[in-house]
């Protein structure tokens, strides 16, 4: 069974995939007559060369950590939660309700309240597809993706008809009051003498996301429930034989997954926009799938992959600002990375496995 | 927070060596994209005309995400771009946040008229007036007595278009049936020609023989299907008559291009405040050119021009959807 050493699986394969994606992207940039070296330099300096760039990179990464973890938890139970987008939208609604209608005395309390309701809303949105899967066998891929559209319609209705302030055109809620403002990295790091950029949106929810990574790791590998989830994911019949209820595991795994996706809203809605806009999630739910795939469903892998995708997003924004590379091509570059690290995983894996096998034979 | 934000700048500005100290204008396109054949493209046309005439150059970005709105505003402001022209109502909130931090920079925003700020030029259009005129044309050109309206994203702005249109239709034939559909509930609805085409087919099957598309890039699909199926369509924002000569009845012009051109021409000295451009200011209107001359009979033209005069003089009042968030003659 042991085809490759672990380091090759965890480090080498993603690295080779990344290099392939970068090479292809360079060809694409060359093809439209731009300089790929300059483009890469701009992306790196724009996303990682200043605290400003880091602030945006980490802001996007926080979103992807939550959605990546959401997808990863479901993966462990062999379920494909494509509904992170909708669950995060509903989470945003939860955050908005908490921030607008509860007079919070301090942001710490508001953060606890908002993340609880966000997680509850996200989990509730995942509960229906989970129940349909567990009890009725309706395929979760189909139902979760359908629920994304329902979520978007619900949000649209709520924003246009119920929560839009009188006289405003924009289908968005009013601004959240000052006490629920989450401290940005600038405000957090200033007391310890680090002058982080004030303009960047990265905020305290980054720490929540990192804590979530640790908690998910504890849950999956250090608790009985996590063991049951993994056992169910590996073999449903085996799990059934061991007395693990498929209905229970399906429901619990999806509720946790939906809750994590919903919690993304504390970053993008409460931390950045400070109001709920229609398109607040911007596909982060889908990027979460790529992040979980690339991170091999391991929380640490998700953490790293989320930062990589944050880099791609922020670097892409810099390209859009300062070069004439059209935005469609920036999406192409981002898509190539997703394609190689996620979908074409086996293309790199199989030859590499063969290589390691032949190396081992040579030694024996 | 705002105090802190107003202090910001130095660190980020230092990081930015690429385009420091340029006084060229910047243009921020909304999520629909630069080449939507409609709203954003009109802005690009205006900017390009300014660039061609003056030999100047301008910075531009097509937004990809919500978080980029504020980011793009700040980066351009720090790079010294002036004025910074932004498109669409979704910029209202980021702009009211950013503009006070850069008092020396002039900002221009199209489709926004309600924010505060001394350094912002806010440009709105009386779309209901222009839509009223094309609604009259639609009713006069329709043989079936049924006309269609395909909106983009279901937001008040688009209902505003539809409401003016419906009033125009009803003024000509009070019994006319108006079928109104929205493409979607997310910004993707601005750029979904396939859905636009499906909606048009559905409206044709219900008897519509003139369809008005107020849907950004989605309208391309509406116009295409209308031409394929042999009915008439009405374009929006830019003059779209040329897309299918002889098949597009007219276009509801919203002179975004003029607004952008004027702002760029004025440069850093651009006058700030709120400007609502209606029929009187030639901010909206209907398009008449060689491509649709055969479709608009002299009687139609006379009737519409008379209504135009009446609206300008105040004799005829077109009810705005915004007045009480509902339309007297059309339910959405």
Task: Characterise this structure.
The complex is a heterodimer of chains A (364) and B (332). With 364 residues, chain A is an all-alpha fold. Chain A has 16 helices and no strands. Chain A has two domains: 1-34 and 324-355, no CATH class; 42-303, ABC transporter involved in vitamin B12 uptake, BtuC (Orthogonal Bundle), CATH 1.10.3470. In chain A, 76% of the residues lie in helices and 0% in strands. With 332 residues, chain B is an alpha/beta fold. Chain B folds into two domains: 2-126 and 258-277, Rossmann fold, CATH 3.40.50; 127-253 and 283-323, Response regulator (Rossmann fold). In chain B, 39% of the residues lie in helices and 19% in strands. Chain B is built from eleven helices and twelve strands. In chain B, helix 9 links the parallel strand 8 (210-214) and strand 9 (232-237). In chain B, helix 6 (127-141) packs across helix 7 (156-172) and helix 8 (193-205) packs across helix 9. Chain B is globular and about 55 Å long. The model of chain B is unreliable at 1-21 (pLDDT under 50). Classes of the chains: A mainly alpha (364), B alpha/beta (332). At the A-B interface, helix 3, helix 6, helix 12, helix 14 and helix 15 of A face helix 1, helix 2, strand 2 and helix 4 of B.
CATH class category label of the largest domain in chain B: Alpha Beta
> Helical element count of chain A?
16
Helix content of chain A: over 70%
Largest interface, and how many residues on either side?
Answer: A-B, 51 and 43 residues
Arithmetic mean pLDDT of chain B: 89
Helicity level of chain B, as a percent range? 25-40%
**CATH architecture descriptor of the largest domain in chain B:** 3-Layer(aba) Sandwich
Q: How many β-strands of chain A, per DSSP?
A: 0
Question: For the CA atoms, what is the radius of gyration of chain A?
Answer: 21 Å
Describe the largest sheet of chain B.
6 strands, parallel
Question: Any low-confidence stretches of chain A, pLDDT <50, length ≥5?
Answer: none
User: How many beta-strand segments of chain B?
Assistant: 12
Distance between the termini of chain A: 17 Å
The CATH first-level class of the largest domain in chain A comes to Mainly Alpha
Sequence of strands across the biggest β-sheet of chain B: 2-1-3-4-5-11
Radius of gyration of chain B: 20 Å
CATH evolutionary superfamily of the largest domain in chain B: Response regulator
Strand percentage of chain B: 15-25%
Number of domains of chain B: 2
């Amino acid at each position: 069974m042991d085809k490759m050493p672990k380091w090759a699986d965890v480090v080498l394969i993603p690295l080779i995939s990344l290099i392939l994606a970068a090479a292809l992207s360079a060809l694409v940039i060359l093809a439209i007559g731009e300089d790929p070296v300059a483009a890469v330099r701009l992306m790196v300096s724009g996303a990682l060369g200043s605290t400003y760039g880091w602030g945006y990179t980490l802001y996007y990464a926080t979103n992807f950590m939550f959605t990546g973890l959401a997808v990863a938890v479901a993966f462990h139970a062999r379920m494909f939660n494509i509904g992170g987008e909708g669950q995060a939208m509903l989470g945003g609604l939860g955050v908005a309700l908490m921030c607008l209608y509860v007079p919070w005395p301090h942001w710490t309390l508001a953060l606890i309240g908002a993340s609880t309701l966000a997680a509850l809303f996200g989990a509730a949105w995942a509960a229906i597809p989970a129940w349909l899967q567990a009890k009725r066998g309706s395929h979760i891929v189909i139902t979760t993706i359908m629920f994304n559209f329902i979520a978007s319609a619900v949000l649209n209705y709520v924003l246009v008809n119920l929560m839009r302030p009188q006289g405003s055109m924009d289908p968005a809620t009013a601004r959240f009051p000052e006490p629920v403002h989450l401290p940005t990295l600038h405000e957090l790091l200033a007391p310890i003498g680090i002058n982080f950029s004030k303009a960047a949106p990265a905020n305290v929810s980054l720490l929540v996301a990192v804590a979530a990574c640790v908690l998910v790791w504890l849950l999956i590998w250090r608790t009985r429930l996590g063991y049951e989830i993994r056992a169910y994911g590996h073999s449903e019949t085996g799990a059934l034989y061991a007395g693990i209820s498929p209905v229970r595991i399906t429901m619990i795994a999806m509720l946790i997954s939906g809750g994590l996706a919903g919690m993304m809203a504390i970053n993008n809605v409460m931390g950045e926009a400070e109001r709920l806009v229609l398109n607040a999630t911007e596909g982060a739910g889908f990027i979460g799938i790529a992040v979980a795939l690339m991170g091999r469903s391991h929380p640490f892998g998700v953490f790293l992959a989320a930062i990589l995708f944050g880099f791609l997003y922020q670097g892409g924004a810099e390209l859009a600002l300062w070069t004439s590379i059209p935005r469609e091509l920036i999406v192409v570059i981002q898509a190539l990375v997703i394609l190689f690290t996620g979908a074409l995983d086996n293309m790199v894996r199989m030859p590499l496995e063969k290589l390691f096998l032949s190396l081992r034979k040579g030694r024996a | 927070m705002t105090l802190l934000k107003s202090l910001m700048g130095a660190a980020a500005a230092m990081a930015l060596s690429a385009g420091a100290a340029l006084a060229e204008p910047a243009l921020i396109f909304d999520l629909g994209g630069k080449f939507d054949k409609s709203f954003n493209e009109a802005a690009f046309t205006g900017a390009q005309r300014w660039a061609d005439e003056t030999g100047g150059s301008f910075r531009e970005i097509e937004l990809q995400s919500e978080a980029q709105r504020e980011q793009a505003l700040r980066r351009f402001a720090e790079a010294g771009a002036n004025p910074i022209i932004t498109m669409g109502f979704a910029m209202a909130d980021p702009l009211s946040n950013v503009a006070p931090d850069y008092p020396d920079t002039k900002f221009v925003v199209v489709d926004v008229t309600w924010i505060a700020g001394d350094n912002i030029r806010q440009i709105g259009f009386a779309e209901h007036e222009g839509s009223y005129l094309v609604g009259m044309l639609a009713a006069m050109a329709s043989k079936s007595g049924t006309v269609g309206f395909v909106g983009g994203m279901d937001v008040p702005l688009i209902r505003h278009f539809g409401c003016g249109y419906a009033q125009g239709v009803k003024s000509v034939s009070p019994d006319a049936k108006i079928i109104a559909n929205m493409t979607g509930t997310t910004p993707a609805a601005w750029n979904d020609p396939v859905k636009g085409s499906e909606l048009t087919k559905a409206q044709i099957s219900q008897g519509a023989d003139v369809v008005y598309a107020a849907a950004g890039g989605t309208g391309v699909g509406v116009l295409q299907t209308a031409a394929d199926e042999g009915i008439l369509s009405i374009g929006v924002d830019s003059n779209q008559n040329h897309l299918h000569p002889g098949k597009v009845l007219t276009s509801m012009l919203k002179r975004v291009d003029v607004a952008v051109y004027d702002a760029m021409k004025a440069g850093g000295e651009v006058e700030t405040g709120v400007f609502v451009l209606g029929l009187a200011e030639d901010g909206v209107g209907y398009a008449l050119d060689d491509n649709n001359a055969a479709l608009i009979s002299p009687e139609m033209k006379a009737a519409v021009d008379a209504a135009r005069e009446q609206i300008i003089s105040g004799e005829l009042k077109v009810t705005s959807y915004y007045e009480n968030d509902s339309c007297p003659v059309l339910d959405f």
